[in-house]
């Protein structure tokens, strides 16, 4: 009986370790160490991450979707990004996107986009990525954003005053 209990303990211990989802050793990072720690602690890495520079390099070859509220998207978004939403997410907005197309999702810091990425993976999309640090990191690294008319802007909807501290106020005008 003791051998059976010991064997079961070993098996369950192995399963617990094997099924635990740790942060990958190699993942994207944010320029600011404190913001990087915040992002890393907020997401579960259930969707592969992509960093800002990698997205810049392939920006015209991927489908980029904004998973924030419509009001946030209207203030500013990454050029050529389409609105996908979070609470009002509707898979019909992806009807023209093949399931194997490369998709990059973002929100403010990466939490909401990861949750939508999980939904897309469950719907059979196979090449889904979460922009690490999302639009805050995009702007913090000095990249251009556009308003709802497609014109460059410095305004970023930071969701609320608390989250706005993660956006570099020297590179953007914070709106909430």
Features:
36% helix, 15% strand, 9 strands, two-stranded antiparallel sheet, 176 residues, Oxidized Rhodanese, domain 1
Q: How would you sum up this structure, described in words?
A:
By secondary structure, this protein is α/β, with parallel strands linked by helices. It has a single domain (29-175), classed as 3-Layer(aba) Sandwich (Oxidized Rhodanese, domain 1), CATH 3.40.250.10. The chain has seven helices and nine strands; from the N terminus they run ααβαβαββαβαβββαβ. A five-stranded parallel beta sheet has the order 1-5-4-2-3. It has a two-stranded antiparallel sheet with strand order 6-7. A two-stranded parallel ribbon has the order 8-9. Strand 6 and strand 7 form a beta hairpin. The longest helix has 18 residues, at 2-19. Mean pLDDT is 89; it is low at 6-21.
């Amino acid at each position: 009986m003791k051998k059976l209990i010991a064997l079961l303990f070993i098996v369950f211990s192995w399963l617990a370790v094997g099924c635990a989802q740790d942060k990958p050793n190699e993942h994207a990072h944010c320029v600011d160490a404190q913001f990087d720690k915040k992002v890393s602690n907020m997401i579960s890495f259930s969707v592969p991450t992509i960093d800002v520079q990698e997205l810049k390099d392939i920006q015209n070859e991927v489908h980029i979707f904004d998973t924030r509220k419509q009001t946030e998207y209207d203030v500013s978004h990454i050029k050529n990004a389409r609105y996908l939403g979070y609470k009002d997410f509707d898979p019909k907005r992806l009807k023209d996107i093949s399931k194997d197309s490369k998709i990059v999702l973002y929100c403010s810091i990466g939490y909401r986009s990861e949750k939508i990425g999980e939904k897309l993976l469950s719907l059979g999309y196979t090449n889904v990525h979460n922009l690490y640090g999302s639009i805050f990191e995009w702007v913090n690294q000095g990249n251009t954003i556009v308003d709802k008319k497609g014109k460059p802007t410095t305004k970023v909807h930071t969701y609320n005053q608390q989250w706005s501290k993660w956006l570099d106020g020297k590179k953007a005008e914070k709106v909430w």
